[in-house]
Amino acid sequence: MVSNSAEFYLLHFFFLYMDDLSVRLPKLGLGTRLAGNVLNHLGYVDDLYLLSLTNAGMQRLLDCCDQYALEHDLVYNGSKSVCMLLRPRFRPKGHKCPVADFYLSNGNLQYVNSHKYLGIILEIVIKTLLGN
To answer: Can you say whether the dihedral through the CA atoms of 111, 52, 33, 11 is positive or negative?
Structure first.
């Protein structure tokens, strides 16, 4: 059994170990901008969410994570790595959001409609609007 203080230090060490990845990802210039800064990932300890506006951008972010893992002898858990596709609510008529296959550590990521992150359930709500 690990004491609370030992667990704190292990988590803190892991965060420092992963900090360089949080520096690399924004340098790719992919994602969205918030207050003039690139926003393409959210992370807490060993959980990481990648954010991209395009399929190609998402795969480049995943490739960056793969490269970082190779350099630092890390392994991503494929059973916990998933994709969620968030589409704009209102799109021009006939506009389609293509669904792509994404790969991490040579594994194909599964698409899900909900995922639990830090005790919060993120969920895609699909609504049908009458008349549209």
So the answer is: positive
Question: How many distinct structural domains can be found in the chain?
Answer: 1
- Please report, for residues 65, 70, 94, the alpha-carbon distance to residue 73 in angstroms, rounded to integers and kept in the order given: 12, 5, 45
> Cβ(27)–Cβ(37) under 8 Å?
no
- The whole model's pTM is what? 0.76
- Residues facing 110 on adjacent strands: 82
Which domain, by its residues, includes 77? 4-123
51-81 residue pLDDT tens: 888 889 999 999 999 999 999 888 888 778 8
108 CB-near residues (< 8 Å, 6+ apart): 101, 102
For 10-36, b/e burial (b = at least 16 CB within 10 A) is: eeeeeeeebeebeeebeeeebbeeeee
The two beta strands, 82-83 and 110-111, are: parallel
| Residue 65 domain-assigned (yes or no) | yes
